[in-house]
């Protein structure tokens, strides 16, 4: 019986994303892409980015905006905002994006206070680093 319980616990731990609803608050703030991996295994490293992504999520709903940091500490942005809803489904965390022009989904692979990894519908993985401004 102990072996069965242990097997079930290990199976559950391996199958889950490890991201819990309380972790989503870690998404709030400024994120910069530092690497992209395409399904073939090819990787692109980003040493310098002209923009950062700003996320603001509360109660599994919020938005993402693209911002361009300025030398004086301010940001330039346009009025385009991607509305986001977060869904926990089948041991996955799905980010549903919607604008006036399109809607799409990304799977959140991992989230810590320092790194975010998401995968889009074309299986392209985006690796973000949290920025402090």
TrEMBL record:
Domain Lipocalin-like: from-to ranges: 27-118
Pfam families: Lipocalin_4
Protein name: Lipocalin-like domain-containing protein
């Amino acid at each position: 019986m102990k072996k069965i319980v242990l097997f079930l616990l290990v199976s559950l731990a391996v199958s889950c994303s490890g991201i819990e609803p309380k972790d989503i608050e870690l998404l709030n703030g400024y994120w910069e892409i530092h690497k992209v991996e395409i399904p073939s295994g090819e990787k692109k490293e980003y040493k310098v980015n002209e923009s950062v992504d700003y996320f603001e999520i509360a109660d599994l709903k919020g938005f993402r905006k693209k911002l361009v940091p300025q030398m004086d500490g301010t940001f330039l942005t346009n009025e385009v905002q991607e509305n986001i809803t977060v869904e926990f489904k089948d041991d996955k965390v799905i980010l549903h994006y919607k604008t006036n022009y399109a809607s799409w989904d990304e799977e959140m692979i991992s989230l810590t206070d320092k790194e975010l990894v998401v995968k889009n519908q074309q299986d392209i993985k985006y690796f973000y680093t949290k920025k402090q401004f």
